[in-house]
Design brief:
Length: about 140
Amino acid sequence: MPDTALQIDRTMLPRSLGGALTRGISGKCPRCGGTHLFRKLLKPVDRCRMCGQNWSIQTADDFPPYIAILLTGHLMAPVIILLGLSPAVPEWAMMLIVVTLAASLIAAILQPAKGGVIALQWWLGLQGFAGHAGKAEAGVS
């Protein structure tokens, strides 16, 4: 499987890191933005169907779960404090609310975090994208 992607019009490429991250976070191909980045919940497609970018070389590894846990912890802290200070909420109800909310937040944040990490790697030319940085392809220095 060659590592080179198809030639596309430069106007389809993101003009900044923010543009690439926005596409990745929304689950779209960071390079062309035209199709889905994931074929399953956290499994990226091998190649983009529109631009041919090889996404099998990404190595997001543990960074997306770290981001999801970090964000969830910061969002949950005020909720836990408020529930803990409320004498009307029994402990078992507080634990049920906290665990359910935390699990839901992590599940909701995990795929966008992975898409953002993949977009970041591609844009900066990190890991498997070395020599094929998105910012170099887009002509941004």
